[in-house]
Amino acid sequence: MTLGEWIDRRELVPPRALTERLREAVAAAPETGQPVPDAALEAAIILLNSLLRGADPSRSGALGLLTADALMTYVFESAADEPERLEALGAEAMRRIAAAAAAVPR
Asked: What's the whole-model pTM score?
């Protein structure tokens, strides 16, 4: 199952604007056939890197941050059936978030 398919099958549907941004973020991430948690992490990090480079303080920027946050939530929600992966996914997510923040020019 792809990340897009997993998101479409969720019972809780986010507001339309967030759903549209989620679809954009998923489309911007390369489809590599990786498991849904890994694909969600990749999409979140790609979006986060883009947001950090653009530093948009507007409402649109806020929606981007909410989208990245939703994707990070999906990382762990989709991994709930594999609890043995949660610790490693958490460590990987933190490492990649820190790397994204460290790469922002000051």
From this structure: 0.91
